[in-house]
Specification:
two-stranded parallel sheet, two-stranded antiparallel ribbon, 6 helices, 11% strand
Amino acid sequence: MFTWMSVQDNVEFGPLAIGKSKAEAAHIAARYVEMVGLSSFAKRYPYELSGGMQQRVGIARALANDPQILLMDEPFAALDAQTRELLQEEIKRIWQSTRKTVLWITHSIEEALFLATDIVVMSARPGRIKARLAPQFALSEDPAVVASAEFVRMKAEIFGMLREEALMAQQQEAAR
């Protein structure tokens, strides 16, 4: 985010940069600022926002550019657990309303299961696709889905695959 710009101005930046009029950019930005629940903070500056609010501004900025694919690389890693869980619910709600393709890169099994419709587990070096899973938890509006037997089963399955790969990577390092 640009620290010298308000939330609204930060979200307007992309549309303005691609030639949208000031009025159209303001309309687009207002829509996405509202979508991420920050309308009452639209005139605030980044330093006046919590970490979770700053993440939501980043999401609004990305969506305002109407991307075909949204890349999210460990977007919630620096947040505390409760803020992360609330933002995961928020991004799920946004995804359900926009149906944008989102490519997540995460080390959190729970995050992947909760938000993804397709999970790719990578192998140790050389990085290859070890497994693809198609969980359906992202389609649920119930945050308690994380306590379901199927969620716990898939979490254990993925944990086992990742542990196997981590041990293999450790052995490869030791052999060097």
